[in-house]
Amino acid sequence: MSAPDDTKKGLVEPKTLKGFRDLMPADMIARNAVVERIRVVYEKYGFVPADTPVLEYLTTLIGTGGEDANKQLFRLESPERESIAMRYDHTVSFARFVAQYPEELKLPFRRYTIGPVFRADKPKRGRYRQFVQFDIDAAGSECVAVDAEIVAAMADVMRTAGLGRGEFQIRINNRKLVDACVIGCGLTDEKVQKRVLSVIDKLQEDGVQQVREKLGAGCIDESGAPIEGVGLSASAIDKIMEFISTTGVSRADTLNSLARLLPKTQVSDAAVQEMSDLNQAVGSLRLDETEAIFDPSLVRGLLYYSGPVFEAHLPAAPQFGSVMGGGRYDRLLGRFRLPSIPATGASIGVDRFMDALVLIGKIKTTPTTTKVLVLSLRGVPTSELLSIANDLRAEGIPTEVFFGDSKVGFRDQLSAANAKQVPVAVILGEDELKAGNVSIKDLRAGRQARSGIQDREEYKKSGKAGQVTIPRADLVKTVKQMLWPDRSPLA
After folding, report:
1. What residues contact residue 304 under an 8 Å CB cut-off, 6+ apart?
2. What is the pTM of this model?
3. pLDDT digits (tens, 9 = 90+) for 209-236
4. Fold classified for 372-483
5. Which of 178, 259, 272, 458 is most buried, taking the most CB atoms under 10 A from its CB?
């Protein structure tokens, strides 16, 4: 809380909105590095960058994701008094975009985009009201091979983040299979079907017993409040639970088991064939049975999904749920134009993904991008320091000159560099200046030399570790060698 005196002075208390957060340099540097790796993956698959506004007309967004999505919309009014809202994902905006520019885009079209989305959700770790999503989408093809490529790109993203075999898993299902199961239980009312899908979607979070209760008479939540059930019969619940619990030794085995459980209808036959074709395509892309599995419990909550759906999970960080997900949404573009254009895609929640990677030790953060800090010492003209920085920057080396308080001395400047984990310091004192030299200190070597030292005298002796004094003309060459000792002359 602000102090009374501060209020009288007109000061405003600095604070962030609930569910929103500020990101420190270390977080942003790590995020940018991960985003760049993801971008390279997406471009390998032929996706090109495109962007859409953060704000859309309310009519564009409302009703596309179901009641839960409607409740999560941040609704606003434009200066023209039009009802607008902040996008809750990139998918609906992409559908509007493709419908608006079909001739310019030349279908089939693949794009990637990165940017913030907004949801008035209950905040918790890994879940914020503003977060960054990095999406890929493909419009204009009904072929499930495109879905398989989406899954393959998801797997490549996981690998490029440093996740190996067994450290990620992509779950795959088909909404048509789930629909066939629900209809096979005699549930023809659309509202009931939606409620059943919503309950199934929470299986990973709620557990088997609570899902059974929600499908039936209902249950009591953790706070003691009653949750109304769907009211299905015991036999219908048994059929649904058997279906969503089915597993096999392989994707094909799981699919065969599901096929035996489904009623023999045109819808179920088409869904099984679609998944069989998808499995063949996924196999052709060399995704093994540990990386990509068929999971009949996967639904994904948004209503616009109409075919294959997929999610990526990290077994070592189950509390984050899915870190990437998507699916086919062939009917969504029909909201904007007829005939509808088929489409599929996937989205990675960058912030949630980052939090999970930090938790399992796949990301090492650093508070700066600076590779060299040029110390500012008394008696040395600023022009000389700027000249050093300019020479290093000309060679692509991120360099900063210490322009802090003039009273901050040599040791404190080195301490500041170490605190930021800067690798190299350049020291130009009066003695070096007169001799036409410069001293270069490998701060990493110094930190390593001091690690574990208990004796004060020994610690003081370690202060010169990794330091050399060289002619000024050899500055750039020496710094490069310190930073990248293994880099070849052609690199």
Report:
1. 64, 65, 91, 92, 329, 331, 332
2. 0.86
3. 999 999 999 898 877 888 899 999 999 9
4. Rossmann fold (3.40.50)
5. 178
